[in-house]
Amino acid sequence: MLPLIVDTDGDRALLEQMVVDACSSGMIDVAVFLMKLMVMDRAPGLYGESTGHLPTEVTCELQRIVCEDGWRGIEAIQARMDQMVASKRAGVCS
Q: Mean of the pLDDT values across residues 67-82?
């Protein structure tokens, strides 16, 4: 298990802003990488330790989120990420 990546609210806000900036700049690969860090930060706390493996499995879904919702801001990105994590945990394909 990796150590906690984001350990303060300030770190979390910075990571979220970096995702939004990468999306608005069209840097899809950077946004996807940063979103993997967000998944690693959010998934265990929201959905349990069984989701720690998700970042390696969801690259295509994260690319789709960046392309479809990246321009809408962090709330839209987080909502889509939460849906994705919940469906993966439930074993539902998106």
A: 89
